[in-house]
Amino acid sequence: MKVLVLGGTGEARQLAAALTELTGVEFVSSLAGRVRDPVLPVGPTRVGGFGGIEGLVRYLRAERVGAVVDATHPFAAVMTRHAERACLRLGLPLLVLRRPSWSGNWHRVTSIGDALGRIATLVPDDSCVFLTTGRGELAVFATDTRHRYLVRMVDPPQEPLPSRTELILDRGPYTVDGERDLMRAHQVALLVTKDSGGALTSAKLTAAEELGVPVLMVSRPPLPAGVAAVETVDAAVAWLRTVADAASAGG
Ligand code: NAP
């Protein structure tokens, strides 16, 4: 059985590594191609969008894919919706592998747009806002001239930045000590981030708590209704084993 792993995350890379050991399963990992120098998974990899739901349906048919694991980032909601639509259309088993959410006592918003509106209610003008929401909707903050921004991301942004921005290009993982030093050095008054989950980037939350810096957290978009989801690579492998067994029993 051939499995398409929709990737771009550490979990997708771990799953690819695990699938090299799983007999009866062939797989290909897929990356969107946004990051300039991506960390690649082991095994066969394709790069670039499929061309919407129709393109994905064509790809799944042409490649005779028997199951899909969507291991994209929790905020890659478009890809997740496309996978759900395409698999429903073709009657293919689909599993979402999504790391658990972070939990903590934070100010919460449901979108980046709402985050911008909340900043002025949480910190005074001219304070430093540490923004780690990725480049997706960075342009939303470009209109804010009232605050200073410390923006951290993987690749240089093409989007406009707020006028008073200091940019840090980095990929993590980060340490609590490093995050504490960074926030102190820039006198960060508010951390704005999104609920990506996982240990790789959670040090900033510990550091913010230690320093008494408030956190404005963008909640995850919901999964499409009815989609099967697991939180660990092991659970995804177990699911694939069952699906592969059923496929081979069915001929
Ligand atoms: P998105 O908004 O959900 O998807 C936009 C389009 O990008 C999709 O319609 C699809 O294009 C293409 N795409 C996304 N993931 C793909 C994949 N794994 N393989 C092939 N095409 C893919 O996605 P996004 O939020 O821009 O994220 C893009 C990639 O970066 C994802 O793979 C995600 O796992 C990773 N990532 C995202 C974030 C984040 O915060 N959003 C953070 C870290 C990593 P077509 O319609 O042409 O098929």
Please give a structural write-up.
With 251 residues, this protein is an alpha/beta fold. It has seven helices and twelve strands. The strands form two sheets. The protein has a six-stranded parallel β-sheet, with helices on both faces. Strands 6-11-10-7-8-9 form a six-stranded parallel β-sheet, with helices on both faces. The structure holds NADP nicotinamide-adenine-dinucleotide phosphate. NADP nicotinamide-adenine-dinucleotide phosphate binds next to strand 2, helix 2 and helix 3.
List the helices and strands and how they pair.
Blueprint: E1 2-6, H1 10-19, E2 26-31, E3 45-47, H2 52-62, E4 65-70, H3 77-90, E5 94-97, E6 107-109, H4 112-122, E7 128-132, E8 148-153, E9 165-169, H5 176-185, E10 188-194, H6 203-211, E11 215-218, E12 228-230, H7 233-249
Parallel strand pairs: 1-2, 1-4, 2-3, 4-5, 5-12, 6-11, 7-8, 7-10, 8-9, 10-11
Helix pairs in contact: 1-7, 2-3, 5-6
The structure holds NADP nicotinamide-adenine-dinucleotide phosphate.
The site of NADP nicotinamide-adenine-dinucleotide phosphate has 24 residues, from strand 2, helix 2 and helix 3.
Termini distance?
11 Å
Shape field: elongated
| Range of helix content | 25-40%
Would you identify the regions where 5 or more consecutive residues have pLDDT less than 50? none
Main β-sheet description: 6 strands, parallel
Number of helices: 7
Helix-strand topology string? EHEEHEHEEHEEEHEHEEH
Ligand inventory: NADP nicotinamide-adenine-dinucleotide phosphate
- Compute the number of strand runs: 12
Strand content: 15-25%
Radius of gyration (Å): 20 Å
Mean pLDDT: 95
Strand-pairing-aware structural class: alpha/beta
Main sheet: which strands, in order across?
3-2-1-4-5-12
